[in-house]
Write a structure and sequence with these properties.
Layout: H1 9-12, E1 31-38, E2 46-51, E3 72-75, E4 98-101, H2 107-115, H3 118-124, E5 127-131, H4 139-151, E6 155-160, H5 166-172, E7 178-181, H6 188-195, H7 200-211, E8 218-222, H8 230-241, E9 249-253, H9 259-265
Parallel strand pairs: 2-5, 5-6, 6-7, 8-9
Antiparallel strand pairs: 1-2, 3-4
Helix pairs in contact: 2-4, 4-5
Length: about 280
């Protein structure tokens, strides 16, 4: 099917860049955003919470503000009037040119926020989705959050690259009702070139989810000049080979609307040109 949309510890030693909750490293993410009444982030009407921090560096990333763990100020040049008395205060900026990406939230506050829309979840089979960034970068925190959601009677859905220690998958399985894994490229060299990491652990984790009979919807972003052409067919073939039906795979169309965010954050714009993908 196709839908257009904008879109243990020993193992960790083999995964450069993975954030494992140990040795005083970050355990609790800053939150980027909350999207209410989301309809493309799992079944039914949902509230999607976005965490800040991702171990991948995808050249096509449409949320560059989600890559770094720490808070970041963005100044949108097309809105900024460069006032001499600028106080760098998001709340009082008269042109909304300033935005702070990354704010602390407690789990209790997140669950309370989600419960505001519980009548809509109950009517539509919806619930809470955790996205990012990469939620499994903070898998211990993500487990606690989903456990609290389940205790409140909320359906849970995880939007993830699956680039995480196998222990994270085992921990999250009991509290995750549905998984929305991205499968970015089949060819490992291609995957590493465009995301900065190998896909070997991603495939291992995906196969573990299939073995566990987890409910899945695999997302395949088609990026022209990067992951189109032969890799589209190769990804579909691999997913079928491990037991994922075509009906559980969604192709996502690539858009390059995030260029203004790269500029506002002072980050190099790495987004490929938007054009028609090649299909073989």
């Amino acid at each position: 099917m196709k839908r257009r949309e904008f879109i243990g510890i020993g193992a960790a030693a083999l995964l450069p860049g993975l954030l494992v909750a140990r040795e005083g490293r970050v355990k609790t993410p800053l939150m980027l955003d909350t999207k209410r009444f989301a309809i493309h982030d799992g079944p039914g009407v949902r509230t999607t919470f976005f965490v800040k921090g991702c171990p991948l560096k995808c050249v096509w990333c449409h949320n560059p503000e989600s890559i770094k763990d720490e808070a970041q100020w963005a100044r949108f040049q097309h809105l900024c009037q460069h006032h001499a008395t600028c106080t760098m205060d998001e709340a009082t900026c008269p042109t909304r040119a300033l935005k702070l990406y990354g704010k602390p939230w407690t789990i209790d506050a997140l669950v309370k926020k989600a419960l505001e829309d519980k009548p809509f979840y109950d009517r539509t089979g919806g619930g809470v989705t955790l996205s990012g960034g990469e939620p499994l970068r903070f898998w211990e925190w993500a487990y606690d959050f989903f456990a609290a959601c389940r205790a409140a009677g909320l359906h849970t859905c995880l939007d993830t690259s699956l680039y995480a220690p196998p222990l994270a998958i085992e921990k999250m399985l009991p509290v995750t009702d549905m998984w929305l894994p991205d499968y970015k490229a089949e060819d490992d060299a291609l995957h590493a070139r465009h995301t900065g990491v190998s896909n070997k652990i991603i495939k291992k984790n995906l196969e573990r989810l299939v073995a566990a009979k987890a409910k899945l919807e695999v997302r395949m972003l088609i990026v022209p000049g990067c992951t189109d052409g032969a890799d589209i067919r190769a990804r579909h073939d691999y997913l079928r080979s491990i037991g994922i039906a075509d009906k559980d795979v969604v192709e996502l169309e690539y858009f390059d609307y995030a260029r203004s965010k790269y500029l506002a954050l002072g980050m190099p714009d790495t987004m490929p040109e938007k054009k028609e993908p090649v299909r073989l």
